[in-house]
Amino acid sequence: MNISDFNLVGRMDQIDGVLYLGAIEATEDPEELRRADITTILSVISDEMEAKDRIGGIRYHWIQADDSPHEDLLTHFPEAYDIIDKCVVSGTGILVHCVAERQKTYEEIHALVQCRRPIIWPNHGFVAQLGLWEGMGF
């Protein structure tokens, strides 16, 4: 990471259509969320966001997980897929985030995502589990 990467911290980036990736800080900016027509936030973090920190008019989904290579994320893929797919089908914006400025994807779309959000660096445990999920036919 070089100094020019630091201006991306706290932002969210549109990956494709209604799908946005960002850091947890992006959930704290109601104006930016409204401009992007975000109606759903999918948090992949260890602690659920407190009700007092939630923004009205946004649906929140929480997958309890740490951003760690040893975290079992494979069991959460179907749930995350369903949440994202509902937003894609309905044409409503969704922000997917974890705590760190690293977002998750698989090798097939990694280049696209990295082009849109250059600071991503998925941990090897997550990438391995995505490979398993793909091998299961998803």
UniProtKB/TrEMBL annotation:
Domain of life (superkingdom): Eukaryota
InterPro entries for this protein? Dual-sp_phosphatase_cat-dom, Prot-tyrosine_phosphatase-like, TYR_PHOSPHATASE_DUAL_dom
Q: Which residues form a coiled coil?
A: none
Q: Name one GO biological process term.
A: signal transduction
State the Pfam families in the record: DSPc (PF00782)
Alphabetized UniProt keyword annotations: Hydrolase, Protein phosphatase
Q: Where is the Tyrosine-protein phosphatase domain?
A: 11-136
Catalysed reactions, semicolon-separated: O-phospho-L-seryl-[protein] + H2O = L-seryl-[protein] + phosphate; O-phospho-L-threonyl-[protein] + H2O = L-threonyl-[protein] + phosphate
Quote the cellular component terms of the Gene Ontology held in the record.
cytosol
One MF term in the entry's GO annotations: protein serine/threonine phosphatase activity
Per the similarity annotation, which family is this?
Belongs to the protein-tyrosine phosphatase family. Non-receptor class dual specificity subfamily.
Query: Which protein are we looking at?
Result: Tyrosine-protein phosphatase domain-containing protein
- In its UniProt entry, the species of origin is given as Oppiella nova
